[in-house]
Design a protein that fits this description.
heterodimer, A: mainly alpha, two-stranded antiparallel ribbon, 13 helices, globular, B: alpha/beta, four-stranded antiparallel sheet
């Protein structure tokens, strides 16, 4: 292997993160979280069994539809929320009509829900924990001076750091998949990989709900798509975190900024569906799983390709600025 | 004429409206220990940052063994090893892991070379311990080991004696001397402490407020400059006006009742004696005082913050 090679640089970055024991911390948090959710899930099933004397999913789903319709009947439901509930009723009804269990019990279903719920906040949080100090940490330690006075172009050093971010995104997604399957499987059972699941519902925030393009997929295929979307979001968050880490020399400040970006996303969508152009903000687009599940997008005009493009463009811009700043600015 | 290993040519750095480094030039040659002297804040570290490419000069160039730091960064950095301010290494890794990591950034540094630099700085016993457990002296040595990995032609040590005890300073001095003799590299050592530069360096550049105020060998600096003569007389106050009447005097002042200190060209000492005798002054003694580097330093830098 020729020295200095990009692989050697990536190896150095991995070594630094490894020595800080970050992945271990993230894995432990993940195990605790998944254990808690699994237990909560288990308790819910137990409660159902007690109340209904059965765990027939059809009874369960019918009950859910009735519950939702009751809520819709009451006057104090906001317009936007009313629409979400209506779509839910229609979707559940469709599952019931086609005799497909949307919540087939087992570890794969748990994984599906975990990735769907975790992609907007938990997984991005983990990549921030792993990556926030990848550049700013070098400033805090002063090691940036040693790093940048070696015979390697700055461009190459940042490229290695970005590729390390992508590598850790992949590792994080893999560990999440493994932990959520392994732990939930103990309680919920391991099978369900081939259970059918429906996708392709088309909901729009103007109130139309279409089942024209609905088709069934085996769970494993659906999961692959779902995990792929999660990877995309986490990689984007990692890339933006890399840019913040380049600009903001203080790691704590950098983490604060990234948290604000993440949290303001869901906040904006719940508050400002009247602010139309907020759909061009990157953090409003992180909920990619809503498209897969056929829920209404937060703002009219948002589709899966639209969100993918918005996230991609923001990541590209972040990356371009990070490279500009890192290669051009004086280091003190 | 030998090719300089490090050539600083009209280097200038302006930040905002402030000129931090003001048109400095000097050369460092192979086998030479070059002292870079100046009070804190004079611009020594800024200059060193420009030498290793951490900051871009506003004007002027730095070349290392003929390679421009700005235009041929990789080639230039292949010839240099540096410690900027502090030996900055990863504290959460062991000494050896640090060296391995930095070796991956260099062409052709193998295990054997890594062991060689560990032996060179005598860190073998603690090399597998985490750097955060090291004393400052050990970190300094690990920093030098890192800087030496690529067999540099130029070694830059920024305030290397900071935080070292007298024994450590002595060891470092001997180490640098030995290194220069064995490898023939150039060493640029910055410091705000005169005594250590005086002992270590062959040549010195004195920097103050962003400017180089003097470059020369240590001997040159001591002897070339106007020195002082102490004139011992019976009554200094009575004689002072007479002394001031002597034509080649820069400056004369009373030190005590029997001593007048005169700044002048030392070659004129005998003429001053005859001049005073001619005017009926009893001269009890004329004492040539060679200025110490420290006094010279104060007079050149205007006395700002010297240790």
């Amino acid at each position: 292997m020729s020295n200095p090679s990009i692989l050697g640089l990536i190896r150095n970055e991995v070594l630094k993160i490894h020595k800080k024991r970050r992945l271990l911390v993230v894995s432990i948090i993940l195990i605790v979280l998944v254990s808690m959710f699994t237990y909560a899930n288990y308790r819910q099933i137990e409660k159902q069994r007690e109340e209904q004397g059965t765990i027939d999913w059809r009874v369960d789903l019918q009950q859910e539809i009735v519950d939702t319709q009751n809520r819709l009947a009451s006057a104090n439901v906001q317009d936007e929320f009313r629409q979400i509930l209506e779509f839910q009723v229609q979707q559940n009804q469709y599952y019931l009509d086609n005799d497909i269990n949307p919540n087939y019990p087992g570890a794969p279903t748990f994984m599906r829900v975990f990735f769907s719920q975790g992609t907007t906040l938990v997984l991005p949080l983990f990549i921030i924990v792993l990556m926030a100090d990848i550049v700013s940490g070098e400033h805090n330690d002063g090691t940036i001076k040693t790093l940048l006075s070696r015979p390697v172009r700055r461009f190459k050093i940042l490229l290695a750091k970005w590729m390390t971010t992508l590598l850790y995104t992949s590792i994080l997604i893999f560990i999440t998949a493994f932990v959520s399957y392994a732990i939930s499987g103990i309680v919920l059972g391991w099978d369900g990989w081939t259970a059918p699941i429906l996708t392709g519902f088309q909901a729009s925030s103007t109130g139309t709900f279409s089942t024209d393009f609905v088709h069934t997929l085996p769970m494993w295929q659906y999961l692959l798509m779902s995990i792929g979307l999660s990877w995309f979001v986490v990689a984007a968050v990692g890339t933006i975190a890399l840019m913040i880490s380049v600009i903001v020399k203080n790691t704590a400040t950098g983490i604060g900024i990234m948290m604000a970006v993440l949290i303001s996303g869901p906040l904006l969508t719940s508050l400002g569906s009247n602010w139309d152009s907020s759909k061009y903000l990157v953090n409003v687009n992180f909920g990619l799983h809503t498209y897969l599940e056929g829920q209404a997008p937060p703002i009219e005009g948002m589709t899966l390709p639209f969100s993918l493009i918005v996230i991609f463009m923001w990541s590209l811009a972040a990356l371009a600025y990070a490279f500009y700043h890192f290669t051009q600015k004086d280091v003190y | 004429m030998m090719q300089p290993t490090l050539k600083i040519d009209h280097l200038t750095k302006v930040i905002g409206k402030k000129t931090i480094i003001d048109d400095i030039s000097f050369d460092v040659f192979p086998g030479e220990v070059f002292g870079f002297l100046g009070p804190n804040g004079a611009g020594k570290t800024t200059t060193i940052r420009m030498i290793v490419g951490l900051i871009k000069p506003t004007n002027g160039t730095v070349s290392i063994c003929g390679f421009s730091v700005e235009r041929q960064f990789v080639q230039a950095m292949n010839q240099i090893g540096a410690i900027v301010e502090n030996p900055e290494l990863y504290k959460f890794m062991s000494g050896r892991e640090n060296l391995n990591a930095f070796a991956r950034m260099l062409p052709g540094v193998d295990e054997a070379r890594i062991q060689e630099v560990i032996d060179l700085v005598d860190l073998t016993a603690r090399i597998d311990d985490k750097v955060k457990t090291y004393s400052l002296g050990m970190r300094q040595r690990l920093g030098i080991a890192q800087a030496m990995l690529n067999n540099p032609r130029v070694l830059i040590l920024d305030e290397p004696t900071n935080g070292l005890d007298p024994m450590g300073i002595r060891d470092l001095r001997l180490f640098i001397r030995r290194l220069v003799e064995e490898t023939g590299l150039s060493v640029l050592v910055s410091s705000h402490i005169l005594a250590e530069i005086e002992l270590l360096a062959d040549r010195v550049a004195i920097m103050s407020r962003g400017k180089i105020v003097k470059v020369g060998t240590v001997d040159e600096l001591i002897h070339e400059l106007a020195s002082t003569v102490d004139v011992h007389v019976a009554d200094s106050f009575e004689v002072l006006p007479i002394v001031r009447g002597f034509e080649s005097i820069d400056h004369a002042d009373v030190v005590d009742e029997r001593t007048i200190r005169v700044s002048m060209n030392l070659d004129d000492t005998a003429r001053l004696n005859r001049y005073l005798l001619d005017r009926g002054v009893d001269v009890f003694g004329l004492e040539r005082r060679v200025q110490t580097l420290e006094e010279l330093f104060i007079s050149l830098t205007g006395g700002d913050h010297i240790v």
